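Input record (one chain):
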Amino acid sequence: MEHQMSHDMGMDMNNGPFMWMWFHTKPQDTVLFSTWNITSAGTMVWACVLVAVAGVMLEAVKFTRRVIQKQQPTSKKASYLSRLFSTMHFLQTFLFFVQLGFSYCLMLIFMTFSIWLGLAVVIGLSIGFLIFGGKSE
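The corresponding structure, as predicted from the sequence alone:
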């Protein structure tokens, strides 16, 4: 009985998508969906631009939620149920849903272990914070 572990841990890269388990710079990756394949430096650049824009959009959604929350009156007279089913609360809930969706997608993109996509996430969020962070007054 031979106890040998192959370098690729039994994953045949020719039979399906390969998931990197370490940080890399190669422009071969699958991002979020099996149809979003990065196959060249050009497609990597476009993917990084899209990811950075998604990071800016996440910060815009967070900013919008803060602005809406500051505009809401803090009336203690309204009942809990009336506040719970108010239009503003539904809008806040929808924006929170969008924020979570963007956040988890960006986390999963970072988890591709592509240094370029990871940098795009960080740069996009940083640009978004530069534009929207702390400016809800």
